[in-house]
Amino acid sequence: MHTQHDHNHAHDHKHDHTGGDCGHSNSGLGCAAELTSDRIDRRILWIVIALNAIMFGVEIVAGINAGSLSLLADAMDFLGDTASYSIALYVMAKSVTWRAGAALLKGGVMLCFGIWVLSMAVMAIMGLHTPDPVTMGVVGVLAFVVNVISAFLVFRFAKGDSNLRSVWICSRNDALGNVAVVIAASGVFTLQQGWPDIAVALIIAGLALFGSFQVITHALRDLKNK
Length: 226
Known about the structure:
By secondary structure, the chain is an all-alpha fold. The protein is 84% helix and 0% strand. The protein has helices spanning 4-19, 29-66, 69-91, 96-126, 133-153, 162-191, 195-225. The radius of gyration is 24 Å and the shape is elongated.
């Protein structure tokens, strides 16, 4: 026969066991879902980091060999994204202040990148030459495919906090920049002049500057509303 004391002890023990550390009163399913989502986000970021690092190597070599400013600008963009995504991965589980601070850092990097490309474009205008349009076109298409894959993978971050949203903004801007590189390659091939290459480098710089404004604005909003 079970006593009232036995019943109460079993009842209390059951609630202690299922409460967990996640603050859910009825079950640990909510916590498990959050942990699963976090693991998926981290895996996505690792994949995107690897893709961007590989494309940086491909584009920096191709840009130097082809003499293309737009490819070199896009290569440096891939390098910046690799660093930015690594920062996003590092601060993912940290506080809002950390994540917003990381987004501010990435916004600053994008701003510096845009200014750097603008200065390179000015110097290229003074020493105008015709890059290799075939290399530009092939590598531009490859970079576009990689960035479309990356943008598809991180689309889930588009409505996230400033840290994760900055990942989406970078991938979106990169895909648009790659389309511009392919168009520039067609222009160089048709005109046999380097102006389209410089024009697209300026477009990539503009995308970086606009993206930095979006990232910094969202990060400051997160800090204000934390």
